Amino acid sequence: MTPAQGSPRNFSTDFLVIGQLGRAHGVKGEIRMSLLTDFPERLQSGLIMYIGEQHKPMRITNCRGLGHSSGQEVMLVTFEGYNDREKVETLRSQMVYVRTDERPPLPEGDYYQHQLLGLRVMDEDGKALGVLVDILRTGANDVYIIKAETGREILCPAIDSTMLGVDLEQGEMRVHLLPGLMED
Length: 184
Fold this sequence. Notes:
By secondary structure, the chain is mainly beta.
């Protein structure tokens, strides 16, 4: 799974990936960050983010939009204590996280991807289809990848006509598969 697709499968439930650091920009400690979040407006001076697999806490001192690159929104970020190009370059290629308990609430019926990954997927009759193992972001709509016990992958578009419900407490998702998505 690439960083552009969201949280890696071995994600920690305490932290969510929101970006990936790129190369340094200029000589004053700015670094490019490709955004992997639907909430870029939350990235502001003073925010604590967690860098790398060790989740090192770091405070943003400045951030500004840079535009889009390779289909992703990119920001320039400066961290407290990283005031030159050489020092900030040590952060290159690191993933950037926020704590799950600090994430903004979603409207009723909306879910974060990490909440859905690993759910058992059932059809409308209660027949087990498999486990949701990945979510592809296509632009038009997400596509859920369901892995059956046989190892076969089922691609299910995440649209109103296929999504019947999610029960996080039960660890289940119910879907209506469109004709042609499953072999008979």
